[in-house]
């Protein structure tokens, strides 16, 4: 439920975009179609601010690899 809710909130309620650049790739792993990246001293930027984070963990997966389809959810603000 958490994954569905956060994906919905990011898709429907967040208008700002952030990009990241720089940083040092400390470790990476690809297992069962899931990427895990650990970065250090990574610069994140959006329209207003730029900040350097000492440690970032990114977990990404391919939605096409999921066997069960993910049902879309709606929140009270979207109804």
TrEMBL record:
Coiled-coil stretches noted in the UniProt entry, renumbered to this chain:
none
Sequence ranges assigned to domain Transcription initiation factor IIA gamma subunit C-terminal in this UniProt record? 23-62
The subcellular location is: Nucleus
Gene3D superfamilies found in the cross-reference section: Transcription factor IIA (TFIIA), beta-barrel domain
A Gene Ontology BP annotation from the UniProt entry:
transcription initiation at RNA polymerase II promoter
Q: Which UniProt keywords apply?
A: Nucleus, Transcription
Give the matching InterPro entries: TFIIA_b-brl (IPR009088), TFIIA_gsu (IPR003194), TFIIA_gsu_C (IPR015871)
PANTHER family according to UniProt: TRANSCRIPTION INITIATION FACTOR IIA SUBUNIT 2
Tell me which GO cellular component terms the UniProt record holds.
transcription factor TFIIA complex
Q: What is this protein called?
A: Transcription initiation factor IIA gamma subunit C-terminal domain-containing protein
Q: Where is it chiefly localized?
A: nucleus
Q: Which SUPFAM superfamilies match?
A: Transcription factor IIA (TFIIA), beta-barrel domain (SSF50784)
Output the superkingdom of the source species.
Eukaryota
What is the source species? Aegilops tauschii subsp. strangulata (Goatgrass)
Report TM segments: none
């Amino acid at each position: 439920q958490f994954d569905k809710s956060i994906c919905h909130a990011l898709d429907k309620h967040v208008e700002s975009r952030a990009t990241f650049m720089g940083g040092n790739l400390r470790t990476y792993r690809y297992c069962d179609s899931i990427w895990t990246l650990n970065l250090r001293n990574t610069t994140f930027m959006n329209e207003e601010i730029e900040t350097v984070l000492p440690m970032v963990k990114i977990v990404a997966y391919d939605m096409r690899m999921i066997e069960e389809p993910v049902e879309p959810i709606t929140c009270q603000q979207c109804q």
